[in-house]
Amino acid sequence: MGMLKDEQHKSYDMGMHTEQLSGRTMQKFFSIDEDGGRFTHPYDFEVDFDKKAELDVKEMESAEVNVRLRELMAEGNGHIVIKNPLAKHSICVGILNRLKLDVEGSLGYFGCGLIDGPNVRISGRVGWSCAENMMSGTVVIEKNAGSSFGAAIRGGDLVCKGDVGSRTGIDQKGGNIIVGGSTGAFSGFMMQRGRMVILGNAGINLGDSMYDGTIYVGGEVESHGVDAVPGEMTDMDAKWLEDKLDLYGMKAPNGISKMKKIVAGKQLWNYDNLEPAEKKIIL
Amino acid sequence: MCGIAGIIHRNKGGDVGTEMTSMLRALKHRGPDSTGFALYGAPVEDEYVMRYKVAEQEELSSGFHIHKELEERKALVDERLRGLGVEILSEEAVTEYAYRCRIKFNSDMRKMADFIEDVEGVEILSIGEGLELVKDLGDADVVSNQYSLNGFAGTHGLGHTRMATESDVDIRSAHPYWAYPFKDVSVVHNGQLTNYWNFRRHLEHRGHRFVSNCDSELIAVYLADKMDQGKELEESMADSLSELDGAFTYLVATTDKLGMAKDTMAAKPMVVYESEDMVVLASEECAIRSIFPHEVDTFDPYEGEVRVWEC
Questions:
Q1: Rg for chain B (alpha carbons), in Å?
Q2: Residue A106 and residue B298: Cβ atoms within 8 Å?
Q3: CB B290 within 8 A of CB B5
Q4: Residue B286: closest CA among chain A residues belongs to which residue?
Q5: CB under 8 Å to B88, separation ≥6 — which residues?
Q6: Does this chain's domain B3-37+136-310 share its CATH topology with B44-128?
Q7: Residue A210: is it exposed, middle or buried by C-beta count within 10 angstroms (0-12/13-18/19+)?
Q8: Strand pairing partners for A261?
Q9: Partners of A53 in the beta sheet?
Q10: Testing the interface with B: which of A59, A88, A106 to mutate, by most B Cβ within 10 A?
Q11: How far apart are CA B138 and CA B98, in angstroms?
C-alpha cells in the first residue's frame, strides 16, 4: 500500500484496483471497514420491510418496471409484489439493497440480473440467464428455469425448485446454486468458486474446465467434463447440504449420503499455477 | 438472432392465424427484417393449395416496366400449368407478386414445380393439401394483415421472425421454407449451420434445388431428402443432430405433425408449453404468454432433444 500513488490509493479505496499475479493466490478479501463500514451505491435505498406495495406490470415496458421499482424503494417500500410479469425480459434487475420481492408469475430473459441484496421469490418460471452476476441475497423460483441459470454469480443463494436448462452456473464465481430437478449440458462450465447442488440428474460435460468450487449431484451424471473429477463427501459437506436444503424446504431424493461430489482435478490451468512466461522467469 | 414459434392443436383446430400472429408479434425484437407463417388448414382430398410469388418485393421499385413484366410472368405460369394438365379451381392475387391457388393435378410434383420455377422470378413457396406458406418483408402485423391471416382456421402452424445475418433481406431468404418438393412439409430455424456449403453441394448432387443462400433452407431440403429415402420424420430429425454442424434449434411441420430439434450444445433457445389440448413452442416465453390470459407451466427442452407431436 505504501508504494501506491494518490490516484491508485483512491482506486484501491473504491475497490477498482487490478490484482497483481504474485505468489500463490490472486484471491483478495475485502474488509468492510474499507468504506467507512458500508459499501455504498447510487441506488442503495433505506427501506421499511413493513411497508408493502403492489405493482401490476401488465402494460409496462421492462425499463418502466425497473424505474418504478426504484421509485417504490425510494419511497421506503421494503416489500414489493409484482403482478402480471408475463415473462417480460430484464426486469427486477440492479436491485442493490435489502428488499422482499414477490413475483407472481414468470420472468423472461435476464430476470433479477446484477442484484445485490434482495430476497426474491418467483411463483412461475424464469427464462435464460436468471440472476446473472448476482452478488448477494436470495432468489427462489418455484417452477423451471432456462439456460445459463446463475451465470457468473458471485454470492447469495439462487434456488430453482424445478428443472433447469444448459450451462447452469457457467463461470460461477461464488454463492450457491440449488436445483431441485435436473440440469442440462455443460453445467458448472468454467466454475471458479461457490457451490452448485443438483438434486436430479446432470447432463453431459458437468463441470467442464472448472477451476474450483464444488458440485453436488443427487441423481445421475451423464458425463463429467474435462478436469471435473469425483470428490470425497465429508461430514461438513453433508451438514452444509442438510442445512441448506432444509432452509428452502427441499430434499435429496435418495438422501444426502447418496449424493455425489464433483470438484476440479486442477490438471488444467487454475489460480495456483503461474503463466508460462512467469514460470520461465522463476525457472 | 431470429425468433421461431409453433403451435399444434391436438383434438380440434383453432384460429392458428391469429395465434401465430400474436406469438410472432411478441418475437418481433428477435428479428424485424421479415416474417413468415406456415399454416395448416383442413386438407381437402385430391386438392392442393399452391402459394407462389412472381417477384421479390424490391423488384416493384425497379421501374415502370416491372408491372407489365409481372403480368407476363404470371401469364407464363398459367400457360405452363395448363400445359401440364393442372386444373386451377380458384385463384387469388394476394399482392401484386404473390398468388394463392387451389389446384388439382396427378402428375409428378417435382417436375411440375421445376417447370413453373423455370419462369424468371417465380418461386413456389409451398404446395400442400393443408399447408399454406406465407412470408414477406415486415413484422407480424404487416404480413398478417397483408395476407389476411387473422382468422385462419387450422390445426397447426409454424412462424418465424428473421434477423438477416448470412443472407439478404428478401422473401427468398425469409422463413419458413417448404421442403421442396414434398407436400405439406415446412421448416423454421434459429441458428447457424457451419457445414452448410458441404451439405448443400452433397444435396445438389442428389438433385435437390436451392432458391436461396440461407442455411435454414438446407434443413428443409435435408429432411426432405431423408424422407425421400423412406425415413420417418423423427428419425430424419435425429440424424440431423449428428450430421448438421452448428448451433441451431428448428421446428418442422407435416400434414399432421409438429417436430422440434435442438442441437447438442443447446445454444439456441426454445420454451415449450404442453397440455392435452395443445402444444405451443417459441424462442421466448413471452410469445407463449401472448396467447394465454392465465398462468401456464413451461419448460426448456434439453440439448440433443428431438420431439414430435401429432394433431
A1: 18
A2: yes
A3: no
A4: A87
A5: B78, B81, B101, B102, B103
A6: no
A7: buried
A8: A216, A231
A9: A80
A10: A106
A11: 15
| Residue among A128, A145, A166 whose CB faces B303 most closely | A166
Using DSSP bridges, classify how beta strands A100-104 and A77-83 pair: parallel, antiparallel or unpaired: parallel
Distance between CA atoms of residues A19 and B214, nearest Å:
47
Q: In the block, which residue shows the cell 404446395?
A: B127
> In the block, which residue shows the cell 421454407?
B177
**What are the boundaries of each domain within chain B?**
3-37+136-310, 44-128
Distance from first CA to last CA of chain B, Å, rounded?
29
Q: Please, are residues B123 and B117 in contact by the beta-carbon 8 Å criterion?
A: yes
Q: Which three cell numbers stand for residue A237?
A: 459437506
3-state SS string for B54-108: CCCHHHHHCCCHHHHHHHHHHHHHHHHHHHCCCEEEEEEECCCCEEEEEEECCCC
Cβ(A151)–Cβ(A132) below 8 Å: yes
Which residues neighbour B275 within 8 Å (Cβ) at sequence distance 6 or greater?
A: B296
Task: Kindly state the cell numbers that stand for A144.
Answer: 423451471
User: How many residues are listed for chain B in this entry?
Assistant: 311
What DSSP element (H or E) covers A72? helix A62-74
Question: What pTM was computed for the model?
Answer: 0.86
What burial letters (b/e) apply to B225-263, b meaning 16+ CB within 10 Å?
bbbbeeeebeebbbbbbeebeebbbbbbbbbebbbbbbb
Determine contact: A88 vs chain B, CB below 8 A: yes
Q: Is B286 considered catalytic here? A: no
Which residues in chain B are closer than 8 Å to A123, comparing Cβ atoms? Answer: 295
At B238, which helix (H) or strand (E)?
A: helix B233-243
ipTM: 0.84
Q: Identify the CATH number of the domain defined by range B3-37+136-310.
A: 3.60.20.10
Nearest residue to B250 (alpha-carbon basis) of B280, B220, B272, B273: B220
Per residue of chain B (311 residues), what is the pLDDT tens digit?
799 999 999 988 999 999 999 999 999 999 999 999 999 999 988 899 999 999 998 898 888 889 999 999 999 999 999 999 999 999 999 999 999 999 999 888 889 999 999 999 999 999 999 999 999 999 999 999 999 999 999 999 999 999 887 778 899 889 999 988 888 999 999 999 999 999 999 999 998 888 888 898 999 999 989 988 999 999 999 999 999 999 999 999 999 999 999 999 888 999 999 999 999 999 999 999 999 978 899 999 999 999 999 99
- Top CATH class, B44-128: alpha beta
Give B280 to chain A, closest Cα distance, Å.
15
3-state class (DSSP) for residue B264:
coil
- Cα B235 to chain centroid, rounded: 20
Determine how many CB atoms are found less than 10 A away from the CB of residue B212: 17
